[in-house]
Structures are given as structure tokens and as C-alpha cells.
Specification:
- This protein is an alpha/beta fold and about 725 residues long.
- The protein is built from 25 helices and 24 strands.
- Helix 21 (about 530-540) links the parallel strand 15 (about 520) and strand 16.
- The longest helix has 22 residues, at about 95-115.
Length: about 725
Amino acid sequence: STTMEELDRSRAFAKDVKRIVVKVGTGVVTGKSGRLALGRLGALCEQLAELNSDGFEVILVSSGAVGLGRQRLRYRQLVNSSFADLQKPQSELDGKACAGVGQSSLMAYYETMFDQLDVTAAQLLVNDSSFRDKEFRKQLNETVQSMLDLRVIPIFNENDAISTRRAPYQDSSGIFWDNDSLAALLGLELKADLLIILSDVEGLYTGPPSDPDSKLIHTFIKEKHQDEITFGDKSRLGRGGMTAKVKAAMNAAYAGIPVIITSGYSAENIDKVLRGLRVGTLFHQDARLWAPVTDSNARDMAVAARESSRKLQALSSEDRRQILYSVADALEANEKTIRDENELDVAAAQEAGLEESLVARLVMTPAKIMSLAASVRKLADMEDPIGRVLKKTEVADGLVLEKTSSPLGVLLIVFESRPDALVQIASLAIRSGNGLLLKGGKEARRSNAILHKVITDAIPETVGGKLIGLVTSREEIPDLLKLDDVIDLVIPRGSNKLVSQIKNTTKIPVLGHADGICHVYIDKACNLDMAKRIVSDAKLDYPAACNAMETLLVHKDLEQNAVLNELIFALQSNGVTLYGGPRASAILNIPEARSFKHEYCSKSCTVEVVDDVHGAIDHIHGHGSAHTDCIVTEDPEVAELFLRQVDSAAVFHNASTRFSDGFRFGLGAEVGISTGRIHARGPVGVEGLLTTRWIMRGNGQVVNGDNGIAYTHQDIPIQA
């Protein structure tokens, strides 16, 4: 969404921006003829004047003097030439002379414009050699500070007219070598909060902007883009071009100053940058945290995950355990960074108006991060699941067959909202020896990106971070779902719509559940205090969870002895909104529920009155999702009937539905909850991510039509 993209930019300016260096290129200052582009320059001055009046400290670095001087000198040359002179080849004008003539004209225009806007400007011409002098740099800071205190806008330019460069238009040696690098240098020297480079194009493209195949790069990532970009020609009139701008932007950004390269043709671009809108190309030292470094296609990612998983399986059990300990340590060590990124996701979700339940799923508190680290360590301490001998058989004399546990291969997990799911899933994949591809919801993409980086950085190079791939684009999912030859299992964690879409568009086996419509049935033989505790916990402990109670079923006899009213009061007094089935809505005078199959994921639930335990079981089978259902009763026969006949993945007696969780079951963590009946059911931990292999050891046996071999098929005890 636009809001989330804008907040991506806002993050670049984590501290308050006060001091801004604006560099304007020759292509913006002058038109095609070389004359001043009066309209654009006027609009620029108006923007800078407005910033100045708003309390920003504005420093301008302006190119254009050489181009403007060249145009004026050519005109003067023409005026002073005879007809015969014009027939001769025209000599190239001296660059230094062009700079000297153009600088006075350019500054005169700036002064005129700023005077009209009631702003004072000051000209500062500098040379590369000056910056070698510490006293000069000290004086420069003092002078500029004095000007800024007086609301004066300093206008910098390199003094090309007396520059000692051998060739002012080619020589790129020295401390700075053009106005782009001068702007970056001034940003650092004067401790600017932001550098904006205004160009004649929208920003940095993957190739020449005129090429229809070139794409605008919104966030420059050094590791990804520096070797992939094809630059076109240098500036039309100046001597910089995009190559110079990128080099200057990288120098400033990686020294700590955010940089935006954007078009100077749009009158509002500076204001848009300061509002965090998505314009131009952003350079930032933390950009690598915000986007993937590589553009691997779907198949490449899956193949890389499989190759890394094989390397992981080749490690010793202790080495695999140590990786999980390293992941847990890394989560705790990076708690602040994780929370900083997560807070941006939460802020974006709130600003975008997402439901409260979705926002709640996003939040990563310090306690949750510590809990995640603890669950990873618990997983590490469990018995190694890979290579366990499950069955051992003597097939024939000297021929032994073993059935052993083995990783599935490569898992694709698609999940929504909850960034903590990424940690659980990744740690389970590492423990079970599987490769993993993850696609989280866009509302958690910053949290997912930092968690992915923290985890993969903890994986040793002998295995490689490609063991766990993070899919960042929704468009990649259809391609991944076609890869039934390299992806072995898809586990969607999210809405009914998401699960249904995936099941309908892939040949890959799918494990998961569509809805979490969990029921609590209060029998007539309940303990009231226990019932209130369980009902309150099942609904209120974490209303957004898939194992939270969505429907409360109550025995009809409890209406008569006021138990029903006490249960209703316990929920309503804690802010729960109640909807009723046909019977309950009439009894309790509450709105009727639109559907019994609705998953609220919030502080709301449905209430219905049933005749008895059989009515409760029928209701659950008719409207439930086979996730988790509970009975509260002191009658053991009724309890056993409920436990035997309710056909759900998890069925509880006198315990909150919130216990339906991999960590609480002692699985260490869970990759999801399955309501299917094949392979795994209920909370899916390590065991659900394993399959089996057959290992046979012989000493030369052959089948030969089963002649000469005596099959014994004797079970061999498995040694602990």
C-alpha cells in the first residue's frame, strides 16, 4: 500500500531533519539551449524559501555556471564575429572562462529571486585544495553556522574559474571532483541531516532512462545494484551525470547521511521527500535491511534451499543444535533492532486502518522476543529428530532394513500478520533439516526482513543463509506454487481465502487449516468458577489467536440457575461483544450472529444454548473447523463421550483452548496447526516436518527371481 511505502521513506529520517543540503544539477538550472530555466529555478527558490521560513536550515549547492557561461560567451563570440569568421571552424570555449562568466550570472539570478521572496542568500566559492586545511574547514563551519542562524541560505559552487585541476571536466581526483561530490562532502563537513540531489530524471534507473526496459530503483542497495546498473551518457551540459551522483550519494549515505536523488523538474519534490513520499531513489546505510539483496527467481531460491538443507543434514547433531543456540542468542542480542523495525510495521498498520486484531498479531514485545528465544532453545534441547531408527527388520540372513526419520526437503510457508511465526517456522526447519521458503504478510514485511536477517546471519557459512529464503513479492507466489518438483510441502497460515486459493492452485501437498472456529461447551455438571476461568482465558488471553474461543455453547439447564448469566457477565465485563444463535439471542437479548462459521479474531464471540452434550457435538460438527474444542464438566462419562466423538484435531476436557499450541504441547514450536487428516494433525512441530526413508545393509545379496534367498522378516529390537 502507499502508506507502507511512504513509511519506508519516513524511516530514513529517524531523527528530526533540520539541516538539509540541496544540490541542483545543470540539467535543472538550464534549458536545452543553455539558457536559465527560469520557471524551474523560480519554483526551486520558492521551495527553499518556504523551508527556510519553516525553520529548516537550507544549504544549496548549485551547478549551472559553466553551462550558463558557455551560452553567454557563445553569444558574445557570435556578436563580435565577422561573416568570414563564422565560416571558420569554431574553437572550443575555455571551461574556466565559462565558469567565471556563468557564476556571476547565476548568482545574480539567485539574489534577484530570493530578494523577491524576502530571503537573503550568500555565495561561497570553494576549491578542492581548501578542504585540506583544517583551519579552513573550521572557519567554513563557523561562517555557515552564522549564516544559518541569520536565516541566510548559503549557495556553494566549486570555483572552476581558478581551479588547479588539470582538466576540470574530466579530472576526478582530490577530495571532491564535481558539485555532486562537493554536496556530499559539505553534507558530512556541516553535519547535515539529509542530502537531496535534484537531477533532470526521476532518480536512478537500472539502465539509461530513455530505455523502455529500464526501471526506477526506489531504494538503492549497494550489494544488489552497484554491479547491475548500466549508465548512459554524462550530463547534457554539466560534467557530472548519474554516475557522479550515485558515487556521491553512496559516499554520503554510507557515512550516515540519507540521500535522495530525484527530479528537479517537479516543483513539489523536495516537500514530498520530507513527507516520506516515494519519490526518486533513496540511499541509506541501512537500506540492506529493508529489501532483498538478490533477485533470485523462484526456482533458484527453492534449489538453493534444498542444497543448503543437504549441507545442514550432513552436520553432526551437536552442530545443528549449536545453530539453534546461536539463533536464540541473536534474537536476544538484536531485540532493540527487531522492535524498532516492528514498531514501524505497527505504525503503518494503524495508519492504514487495519483491524485491531491484525495489529495485535503484529506487535513484538520484549517479552515475546524473549519467549521466542526460549522456545528456540527448548527445540535445540530436544532429541535430534533426523536419522532416528523407527523400525529395524532382518529381511533375510545378513540383510537388515531400517526405517529412519528424514527431512521432507523444502517447505514453502505462507503466513499472514504474525512475525513471530517466522521465528518458530525457521527454527523448526533448522531442527528438522529442511530447506525453507517464507512469504509473510506485507503488513509485517519490515519485521520479517529483520528477523530473517538475524536468523540467517546466525547460520554458519558451511550451511549458508540460503537455507531460509524470504519471498518479498506477492507476484512470486504463483511461480513457487508451480514448483512441485523442488518444493515438497506448502503450509499456509492465514485466512480461509488464502488457504483455499493455495489449495486450488498447486499440485504440491498442502498442510494447514482454513479457520480456527474453536468451541467451549459448558455442561450442566460444570464447576462454575472453573467454567468462568476457562471461558475468560479461551477468549481473552489472546483474542486474535486461531486457538481462541469463537463460540460458547451452554447447556439449556444453566439458564435456570443463573450460571449462563454469570458466564455472560464475565465476558461482557471484560469488553467482549456477544452475538447469539437463535436461542441465545432471544434469551439474552443480544444481536443475532450472522453465521456460526465466523472467526472473529477479536474481543467478540458467539453464544448459543444447546440441549445437551449430543447437541453440542452436533453443533461443533456442523459449524466448527475441526481445530480445537473443549468441554467443561465434572461428569466423567459426559467428558469421555465428548472426547471420543468430537472429530477435531485437538479435544480438551476442563482446559482452555489456548493450550492448543506447539510450544505448550512441548513440541518446542509449531509450524502451524493442521485440521486435515493426512500426514500430521493438530499443532505441527518437528515430527510433522519429517518423512521416512528405508536404509538397507547387506553383504552381496541379489533377488534373482527370489531363488536362493530365505526371507525371515524378523523384527530387531532398536537400541536406545
